[in-house]
Amino acid sequence: MQNPAYTLGNYRITTDPAELDVAFIHEFLSKEAYWSKGIPIETVQKSIANSLNFGLFEQDRQIGFARVITDFATIAYLGDVFILEAYRGKGLSEWLLQVMMAHPDLQNLRRWILLTSDAYGLYKKIGFNTVAKPELYMEKHNPAVYLEQKS
């Protein structure tokens, strides 16, 4: 697997897992992200260990993150995409997503998927659409899983 790095002014994106600030990622996902409130640090660590990760940095400070869960052959799921609020509105989200989609190990996939409740415009800009045939999709979803583990 390749670990390219990308730069845009003072910002850079890396896929090197050694550079990720796992405490920062956990803090955001467990307290700020609507999709993962209460997620344990161990779950974040395991998810990072089993994904292709993209850390967004302003110089040496991590300001964003996203990951791809994939078989590197047919499908990719885009997850845990976030940028700190102070850095939003600068085009960094779109750049991060473009870098992810252009990663050399993620080319020629048949399908990319994601879930969002508030960023449809952003994802449409890079080619995502609503599901054409939602009747084909099924899910087993437990949104309270992390909160239940603490009981």
TrEMBL record:
Coiled coil region boundaries: none
Domain N-acetyltransferase: 13-143
SUPFAM superfamilies tied to this protein: Acyl-CoA N-acyltransferases (Nat)
GO MF annotation: an example: acyltransferase activity, transferring groups other than amino-acyl groups
Top-rank taxon, per record: Bacteria
UniProt-listed InterPro entries: Acetyltransferase_Butenolide (IPR053144), Acyl_CoA_acyltransferase (IPR016181), GNAT_dom (IPR000182)
Pfam families: Acetyltransf_7
Protein's recorded name: GNAT family N-acetyltransferase
